[in-house]
Write a structure and sequence with these properties.
Helix content: 10-25%
Oligomer: single chain
Number of helices: 2
Distance between the termini: 56 Å
Largest sheet: none
């Protein structure tokens, strides 16, 4: 059975997710020096997920190219 073209994901996993896996949260907390290995992984502090937005390239005017 084939998948309808409207259901296919064109960009893959480029979008920012608002939920991280436990391993990703631990890695992020270690980067921020907020993870204590003595404590339990249950009840870890929240980690903010920054959404990255790509800026569109500006079109170059044809008048500038003619010069």
């Amino acid at each position: 059975m084939t998948m309808d073209s409207s259901l296919k994901v064109k960009a893959g996993a480029i979008r920012a997710r608002n939920v991280l896996t436990r391993a990703e949260r631990i890695a992020r907390l270690k980067e921020l020096d907020r993870f204590n290995e003595d404590k339990s992984v249950v009840g870890m502090p929240k980690v903010r997920v920054v959404k990255v937005s790509l800026k569109k390239k500006k079109k170059v005017k044809k008048a500038e190219e003619d010069k």
